[in-house]
Amino acid sequence: MARWIILTLLWHLLSMLSAADEFAEALEHCGERDEVFNTSLLQLGTTLARTPTNPCGYLLIDTCSNLSLGCSNACATHSHGSDCYRPVEDVMAEHPGEDGYCYFNSVAFYVKYGGPTPDFEAEAASGITYLRHGEYKGLNTGPLLTYHFEGEVIASHMDSMHYSYDDIYAYSLGFLQGQGIDSWRMKNATDWISLSEEKCKTIQQRYNFSKAELVLSDWLDFNQVIATMACCSAGISCATDENNRRLSGFQSVSQCRPVTRRDFAKHHYMKCLLGYRNSAADMAYLHSRACLLAGHRIGHFSDCPYVPPVDF
Ligand SMILES: *[C@@H]1O[C@H](CO)[C@@H](O)[C@H](O)[C@H]1NC(C)=O
Ligand SMILES: *[C@@H]1O[C@H](CO)[C@@H](O)[C@H](O)[C@H]1NC(C)=O
Ligand SMILES: *[C@@H]1O[C@H](CO)[C@@H](O)[C@H](O)[C@H]1NC(C)=O
Ligand SMILES: *[C@@H]1O[C@H](CO)[C@@H](O)[C@H](O)[C@H]1NC(C)=O
């Protein structure tokens, strides 16, 4: 269970494993023991990266470099690992035209290059389905959580563990259906990417993140901290270990640090810097799965105007 909580909470980072057979391969090992699962996730990336024609970054060794964070930071064993510790803006400036998810491919199991020709609706649907593994029981079957977020009160069913992150993350960024984005624009990848670019620029105008704040390794490590703070906002505990408790200021569900708009904006903005194709994929995923309803409620799937091609 702990394994799955970590994996699912991280997923919102999106970057869906792009090909369906990769999912199949990962899931195939999933019913076996944890170590098989951990290894198989990394092997996916490595196998992908080691083909002679693949221009992307890859893992130097085939093991999980940081188990304590759910294999979520492989900077120490990545072909471009030394660039994990520098401002990502500087790194990308040295590689004009390259996709950051390609450059840092497999640096975490969820950072995967999705290819040059995105189908955002399909990628979003894959991500939604993948994340449900094992625990999704159906629409509105999970507990109704109440988030206290930046002075607002918002309710949403947590039908799967990662909902406690993704619902409020999407709301915070204004990416839910009902917050002003035209869902049809997802069908035109070029258009959707340019919308994402606009959103990214708006974020940076508002928050003015410094270069030093946007370092890939820090971003990878902070993700689980955000997950724990999002749970805090909903009055539930997702603290995974002592390190996570310390970093997220978690003492108990009533004494913990709630997540902020700035935390979420920074999280998304790193994807912008790694390429608008990647922030656009994040936006598509967040937009497809949920909507803002009357009465400060967040709904999913058939609660919403746009319904992605998944069962629910
Ligand atoms: C793994 O992550 C923990 C927590 O951030 C850190 O203290 C440790 O140095 C990391 N280990 C490696 C090998 O990167
Ligand atoms: C697999 O990963 C999970 C969490 O990421 C961890 O709890 C488990 O101990 C790992 N298994 C092995 C054998 O390392
Ligand atoms: C897709 O969007 C781009 C940019 O907005 C536009 O130039 C192009 O004509 C659109 N393509 C289609 C097929 O609508
Ligand atoms: C943004 O931050 C930089 C430092 O990172 C600072 O020099 C600049 O004045 C800031 N701009 C605004 C509009 O706040």
Describe the structure.
With 312 residues, the chain is α+β, with helices and mostly antiparallel strands. It has twelve helices and four strands. It has helices spanning 2-11, 20-28, 34-49, 88-93, 100-103, 120-131, 163-173, 189-207, 216-233, 242-247, 261-273, 276-289; strands spanning 144-149, 152-157, 290-293, 297-300. It has a four-stranded mixed sheet with strand order 1-2-4-3. A hairpin with a 2-residue loop joins strand 1 (144-149) and strand 2. The chain binds 2-acetamido-2-deoxy-beta-D-glucopyranose (4 copies). The site of one 2-acetamido-2-deoxy-beta-D-glucopyranose (NAG) has 8 residues, from helix 1 and helix 3. Keywords: Signal. Residues 1-20 form the signal peptide.
Summarize the structure.
The chain has 312 residues and is of the alpha+beta class.
The major β-sheet equals: 4 strands, mixed
Number of continuous helical runs: 12
Low-confidence stretches: 1-49
Please indicate the count of domains. Answer: 2
In which range does the helix fraction lie? 40-55%
Bound molecules: 2-acetamido-2-deoxy-beta-D-glucopyranose
Mean pLDDT: 83
Question: What is the strand and helix layout of this fold?
Answer:
Blueprint: H1 2-11, H2 20-28, H3 34-49, H4 88-93, H5 100-103, H6 120-131, E1 144-149, E2 152-157, H7 163-173, H8 189-207, H9 216-233, H10 242-247, H11 261-273, H12 276-289, E3 290-293, E4 297-300
Parallel strand pairs: 2-4
Antiparallel strand pairs: 1-2, 3-4
Helix pairs in contact: 2-3, 6-12, 7-9, 8-11, 8-12, 9-11, 11-12
This protein binds 2-acetamido-2-deoxy-beta-D-glucopyranose (4 copies).
One 2-acetamido-2-deoxy-beta-D-glucopyranose binds next to helix 8.
